[in-house]
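Below is a filled-in request sheet from our internal design queue. Each sheet records the structural input a requester submitted and the sequence that came back. We keep these sheets so that new team members can see what a complete request looks like end to end.

REQUESTER: design group, bay 2
PRIORITY: normal
MODE: inverse folding
CHAIN LENGTH: 298
BACKBONE (tokenized):
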């Protein structure tokens, strides 16, 4: 599913570093979020392939780490909603509780063990006919995929997100930032457009000096109990020295009564912004009217 909303007037090509694309600053960049995840189980290699076939400029793998230190593509650290792990009695004793959630977690499995699982469509209303057929993909396999497409004359970029780095650093690899930086250096040297994103501000500070690819701090915001809406809970100015841009939850663009929140006006002159989240026609229409800028729903 291509589900990014990109505010390219604010973003520009400087954030993405996509010199291989003959696009101008106002052209939309199409990102296959978790691959073509509305058609095939998310983060499977086949979902990425389909996203590319559908015309994506970038594919977006979320990364977690296995017990033996391999980076694999999963949106969550737990496995029950997107794999058939519950159908494997040999892994019944791996179930445990992290942050109040009882489940099976990626970091408790080796790559070989994860490869015995098959992925599933996690969302209601989406095609489940491919459930229990496809494997979990590794970052190396994803890199091989975009390399193969480049060799065939089609350049597809990677929009890499690291999930919960503090957990993986504490239990598996304290040098996680260096590992990721090395992978991204290979991509950059091979002419693959790439940038890195993460919700963890401390990890953004750690990885930024290690890589030449653009680094984006993702900001989800925090629900305000009084307004029942999302407030900006990060001081973006504190990250100007390390972040090349900021990825904001689209709800941060507006107040609870659907008026512009002032975030765009405040930060587009000072920093590069892009907006993430599923398409919402009402929000898009409000944004067009509020800013008279190029806000693209993909």
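RETURNED SEQUENCE:
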């Amino acid at each position: 599913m291509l589900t990014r909303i990109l505010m390219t007037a604010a973003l520009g090509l400087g954030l993405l570093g996509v010199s291989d694309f003959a696009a101008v600053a106002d052209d939309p960049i199409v990102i296959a979020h978790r691959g073509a995840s509305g058609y095939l189980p998310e983060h499977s290699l086949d979902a990425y392939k389909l996203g590319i076939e559908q015309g994506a400029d970038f594919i977006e793998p979320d990364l977690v780490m296995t017990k033996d230190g391999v980076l694999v593509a999963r949106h969550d650290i737990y496995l029950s909603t997107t794999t058939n792990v519950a159908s494997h009695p040999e892994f019944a004793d791996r179930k445990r509780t992290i942050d109040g959630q009882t489940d099976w977690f990626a970091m408790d499995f080796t790559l070989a063990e994860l490869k015995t699982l098959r992925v599933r469509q996690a969302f209601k209303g989406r095609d489940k006919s491919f459930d229990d057929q496809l494997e979990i993909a590794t970052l190396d396999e994803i890199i091989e995929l975009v390399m193969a497409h480049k060799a065939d004359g089609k350049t597809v970029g990677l929009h890499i997100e690291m999930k919960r780095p503090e957990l993986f650093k504490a239990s598996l690899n304290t040098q996680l930032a260096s590992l990721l930086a090395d992978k991204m250096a290979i991509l950059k040297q091979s002419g693959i457009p790439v940038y890195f994103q993460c919700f963890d501000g401390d990890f953004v500070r750690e990885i930024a000096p290690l890589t030449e690819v653009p680094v984006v701090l993702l900001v989800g915001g925090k629900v305000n109990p009084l307004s029942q809406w999302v407030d900006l809970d990060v001081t973006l100015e504190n990250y100007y020295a390390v972040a090349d841009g900021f990825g904001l939850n689209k709800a941060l663009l507006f107040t609870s009564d659907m008026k512009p929140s002032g975030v765009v006006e405040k930060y587009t002159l000072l920093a590069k912004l892009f907006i993430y989240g599923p398409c919402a026609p009402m929000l898009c229409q409000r944004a067009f009217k509020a800013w008279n800028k190029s806000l693209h729903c993909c």
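SHEET NOTES:
- Residues 1-25, 279-298 have pLDDT under 50 and may be disordered.
- The radius of gyration is 19 Å.
FILED BY: M.R.
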